[in-house]
Structure formats: C-alpha cells, structure tokens
Amino acid sequence: MLLPVIVVLIVLLGCTGDTAGEDTMRLTEADNGKAITVYPNGEFTINLESNPTTGYMWAVVEIDEEVLEVVKNDYFADPSPEMITGTGGREEYQFRGIKPGECVLTMHYRRSWEPDDPDGEFSVTVKVE
After folding, report:
1. Among 88, 103, 1, 95, which residue's Cα sits nearest to residue 49?
2. Which helix (H) or strand (E) holds 11?
3. Which of 6, 47, 120, 123 is least crowded, fewest Cβ atoms below 10 Å from its Cβ?
C-alpha cells in the first residue's frame, strides 16, 4: 500500500514546474514573425547571422521597455581555420520579461550610419504573463 503513495509523490514532485534547470528559449531566423510567451523575469535569446566587418549589425528598433528589457548582446565569429578577416558569425541578444504585457520586438540588420536603410528585419511578438 505504501508503494503507490511513494510513486504518486515522485510523479508530483517531478511536475512542480521548476524551470531553474531548463535552457533559455532560443530564437533564430526561422522564428521571424512568430509569437512567444515568457514569464516575468523569464529570459530568451535571439541568435541571428551577422557580419560586423561589413558594417552591418542587428539593432533593436522597437521594444516596450516597460514589458521587456535587453540583458546583453554578444557577437560570435564563425570558426575560420585560415584566420580570414571578414568571416561572418552570429549575433545573440538576450532579453528578459519585466512585467505582464505584450509588445512587438523588432530588430533591423543595418549599418549605424544608414539607420533608414536596413538590409534585414526580425520581428517577434512577446507576451509576458
């Protein structure tokens, strides 16, 4: 009789919803135009192809800073065995939900001196709840 109770407790403990050990949601070019949901203080990353040696980088152009914040932005160059200058890579932005709400997050791939002439756009609707 004690064994079924122990099994039920183990199952229930495994379903607590604790996300501390889970990976952060990671979005790529394939997620452009989609909608996602995160918890307050929940984080996600957007990882996009980039080549800053050409002057182009991703820039956040639309965000509701009361709902969502940029945590950090990093660039990771692709491995180049010949150490060739100008090799592209990936830019990764990390975001955090601040408080419940919804916003459109839009990023442009552009040169800083040509802000009105983006070469690409990435957009996602983010719901924080």
Report:
1. 88
2. helix 2-14
3. 6
Q: Which of 41, 27, 16 is nearest to 100 (CA)?
A: 41
Q: How far apart are CA 34 and CA 27, in angstroms?
A: 10
In words, the CATH class of domain 25-128 is: mainly beta
CA 110, CA 104: separation in Å to the nearest integer?
Answer: 19
Tokens at 87, concatenated: 């090799």
84-114 pLDDT tens trace? 777 789 999 999 999 999 999 999 999 999 9
* Model-wide pTM > 0.85: no
| Spatial contact of 85 and 52, defined as CB atoms under 8 Å apart | no
Q: What count of residues does the chain have?
A: 129
Tokens of 117: 């002439």
